[in-house]
Amino acid sequence: MTRGEANIAWIEEHCRVPEGKLVGQPVVLREWQRDVIRGIYDKPTRRAIISFGRKNGKTALSAFLCLLHLVGREATPNSQLFSCAQSRDQAAILFNLMAKVVRQSPTLNPVIGVRETAKQLYCEELGTLYRALSAESSTAYGLSPVFVVHDELGQVRGPRFPLYDALETAAGAQDEPLSVIISTQSAEDGDLLSILIDDALAGHDAETKCFLYTADEDLDPFSDEAIRQANPAYGDFLNPKEVKRLAEDARRMPSQESSYRNLILNQRVARESPFISQIVWNQNAAPPREEDFASGVVMGLDLSRRVDLTALVAVGSGDDGCFSVHCEFFAPQEGVADRSIADRVPYDLWAQQGYLTLTPGKTVGYDFVAARMVELCASMGVDEIKFDRWNIPELQMQLKNVGADDLPLVPHGQGFKDMSPALAALEAELINGRIRHGGHPILTWCAANAVIDMDAPGNRKLNKKRATGRIDGMVALAMAIGGAVVYEDSGSLDDFLQDIVSF
């Protein structure tokens, strides 16, 4: 047998099912679990990342591997083993499951001691010690682990986790340390687990193995095919009826879709629901029509901060009752590579493809924005340019310099009062499939990032601070669509607002 196959045999001989209808019976590993174990042990491995949807037995698999290194074929005398999690409760889950496996096993129970209060397992004969740690632990320094389980690392937000750093750097004194990361995916590209997964999939380190079970983005997220891709235990010890119920809940209630995609389909999706679901957004990806911009065009302008994106979005109404969308985005040339890394999006590629205008210097050149506004107004029948008041005096100065200070600029507030009807109009048009945005990549990225705040009466606005990335394009689009819908309506603004409330 290979090393991996021998470890599989050890687990099935000595470990018992800790919970459920088969409790106490010998463990029978599934083929996908065997593939993971062979993948880890048959070739040199320093770090193994195992990621799939919830309730696929991740904690049990972690427990078996931990016991394998505590007293099994992979045990090193007088070694330290750890599992770590963000909270004490989470850290205790793996310990409790391991303790149940030990107590059920006639071969492990006599040789492994259980210390409930300290959350430790130990083998006196080998001198090996396992301990559950949490981020709330006073310190993780001074340790020397030979084996570590990073449990639910996907819950870490941002690129750093002190406990992870402490344990990974502490393993330097060991000849063959092994870290196992077992978790559903993080929500964002910039989170620690996402960074580790992307690095592993890129193949930068041959001793980092990644076993990623995730549903393809182009599949129907509620289909059996998508569910099976992310859940190797689906139809086995993962109850298909319960999973399908969660899928149907997410289908009926868009607010549940992001959580369903992240936790069940193991997709990298923020569990905080976006303003517009990906499915609805994709249903409006038809290309815009040039003839729609001949007259009655409303623009939305979000200048944002000088080092971020500036978005200019034009909306033209068609004779079929739909709205075509034309986007312009601006960003500073200097530092674009660093911002691409920080925001984890290809600003430089978007610029090469013509989706983004890079202006010279460290900040967005408002002279370029002003010049482009003049060009668009000359080629389109623009009636209004709705704008966020942020930094507008600087832009107006640039417009004056080019003799275009008479453009139809109309201020648009960013609070609940002004943004709520604009968002309601945008939401209604998207749900009804009456937007043609052409799948513009930057606007699509902004749409995926957009989340809302709601006040007590139910008014809404976009929240840039809570957003997971830039949302400037959606701010500009909401202002433009809000203005275009009002412009198209033959009635009064009060009538329009009453229609929105009714919707």
Task: Write structural notes for this entry.
By secondary structure, the protein is of the alpha/beta class. The chain has 18 helices and 17 strands. It folds into three domains: 3-212, P-loop containing nucleotide triphosphate hydrolases (Rossmann fold), CATH 3.40.50; 224-273, no CATH class; 281-502, Nucleotidyltransferase, domain 5. Strands 3-4-5-2-6-7-1-8 form an eight-stranded mixed sheet, with helices on both faces. Helix 3 (58-70) packs across helix 4 (88-104).
N-to-C span = 66 Å
What spatial form do the alpha-carbon principal axes imply?
A: elongated
Number of domains: 3
CATH architecture of the largest domain: 2-Layer Sandwich
> How can the largest sheet be summarized?
8 strands, mixed
Number of strand elements: 17
List low-pLDDT spans. 490-497
Query: Structural class of the helices, strands and pairings?
Result: alpha/beta
**Tally of contiguous helical segments:** 18
Q: Looking at CATH, which topology of the largest domain would you report?
A: Nucleotidyltransferase, domain 5
**CATH class categorisation of the largest domain:** Alpha Beta
**Cα gyration radius (Å):** 28 Å
Please indicate the percent range of residues in DSSP E strands (runs of 2 or more).
15-25%
Secondary structure elements and pairings:
Elements: H1 3-14, H2 31-41, E1 47-51, H3 58-70, E2 80-85, H4 88-104, E3 113-115, E4 120-123, E5 128-134, E6 145-151, H5 162-170, E7 178-182, H6 192-201, E8 208-212, H7 224-230, H8 240-252, H9 257-263, H10 278-282, E9 297-302, E10 310-317, E11 323-332, H11 336-343, H12 347-352, E12 357-359, H13 366-379, E13 382-387, H14 392-401, E14 409-411, H15 416-431, E15 435-436, H16 441-449, E16 452-454, E17 460-462, H17 472-488, H18 493-502
Helix pairs in contact: 1-2, 3-4, 8-9, 13-14, 15-17
